[in-house]
């Protein structure tokens, strides 16, 4: 039986009033809650590697070990992107931990198939740059290698977004990431600006900055990747 709203109350206005958890303040609280939980779970998932990374010295000889320590970061990042993309806006319907671990289960192996070769390639570039004087190559080669490394990182950003949100074969994801690297320059520039901002903050403040601000940075990456996500949904999925 329908309940009488009482004298002097407009039933239409009552039904149109927003329910708890759907207002702007509630949405902001839901976003903050999701960011905090996803950040914490990302650090938990990547902790074994990050702990080893901080114990390593800055010697160039440790670069291969650093790459091994960074392996868990790929699946952890893909899971965070999945959880942030599928986050609830309603304060009463928040399950960020459930979404994160679902994203990790779905994306751990696909992410590693792309993340591990990327780390190996970046390690080769970094090792060459740190021993560049011994190569006898002209100086412009160092600039070229640095540019290739930066481009590889941007390709990796697109690849992780695609891996986290879609189910493709690894080689298809790699091709799509390379395709979008030049097709959607705004998305690539957005990822580049986040990369520069993170590098600058790390150099000026602390090396732990990328880990402490991982969730907001990944949310910004998703925002800048909206054209990539939209075209993939429209043209490359059934």
How would you sum up this structure, described in words?
This protein is mainly alpha-helical and 238 residues long. The chain is 77% helix and 0% strand. The chain has helices at 11-16, 24-55, 63-69, 73-85, 96-130, 132-135, 139-165, 170-183, 185-204, 209-212, 214-224, 226-235. Helix 2 runs antiparallel to helix 4 and helix 4 (73-85) packs across helix 11 (214-224). The chain starts with 10 loop residues before the first helix and ends with a helix.
Short synopsis of the structure:
The chain is mainly α and 238 residues long. The chain is 77% helix and 0% strand. It has twelve helices and no strands.
Give the structural class. mainly alpha
String of helices and strands: HHHHHHHHHHHH
Assembly context of the chains: single chain
Describe the global form. Answer: globular
Count of separate DSSP helical elements: 12
Query: From the alpha-carbon coordinates, what is the Rg to the nearest angstrom?
Result: 22 Å
Distance between the termini: 44 Å
List its traits:
12 helices; mainly alpha; 77% helix; 0% strand; 238 residues; single chain
Please outline the helices and strands.
Elements: H1 11-16, H2 24-55, H3 63-69, H4 73-85, H5 96-130, H6 132-135, H7 139-165, H8 170-183, H9 185-204, H10 209-212, H11 214-224, H12 226-235
Helix pairs in contact: 2-3, 2-4, 3-5, 4-5, 4-7, 4-11, 5-7, 7-8, 7-9, 9-11
